[in-house]
Amino acid sequence: MSLTPYKHYVDLNCDLGESFGAYTLGADEEVLKLVSSANIACGYHAGDPTVMRRTVRLCLEHGVKLGAHPGLPDLQGFGRREMRISPSEAYELTLYQLGALEGFARAEGVRLHHVKPHGALYNMGARDEQLAEAIAEAVYRFDPSLLLYGLSGSRLLAAAERWGLTAVSEVFADRSYRSDGSLTPRSETGAVHHDESIAVAQVLQMVTAGAVTAADGTLVPIKARTVCIHGDSPQAAVFAARLRSALEANSVGIAPPIRQPTGKDFL
Question: What does pTM read for this prediction?
């Protein structure tokens, strides 16, 4: 039996299926050749039935794990504007969108693998315990075998563990971090790393050293089991290829996370 050349393994995930009607966003087919899991928009912040069906089929074609990407009902704001919603509404909108995508997955003979909230819903669930509980409960009630992706160290992952779900710690390649481990808001300067070299170096640091250098220079401990690549960038496929090559060159293999029997955090 040959030994693996990799010291670490990480999942590369990408938010996909975010086109809508006559509007095309991203290069989904090219990105799917390079990632190991995909988060598919479910029609609230982006996507539509045609796009959802096509994206499910593309994931199957490329052997990529399917995940639901539920967001806030805000097409104009792409789900990135916060809304004042109750825990009950968070539960219901999450459950509704999971059901929508699961319908297309079942029709193609496959099951969903994970759930990753989108945009503002993701960030709200990361810091608000009641919303985190509602999202985690919706996932559990729908299918307790689903993995729940969330920001490393967030309340969403803690809620996932309380519900017995497998919580998968996520980090972001192109986003800067605050000293408390949260993402720098997009409204602030420097929230997004536009220099690919900086983004690649940050991912390598998070995956191999278990830490990230925050915007103020603080070294913040972090768990990186899955790395998000944003699919709406025109250079998403080019960056994904560069990042994957850099990871493999540094003894990091690419593989999707699996459900843990204890329901604990993957790392």
Answer: 0.93
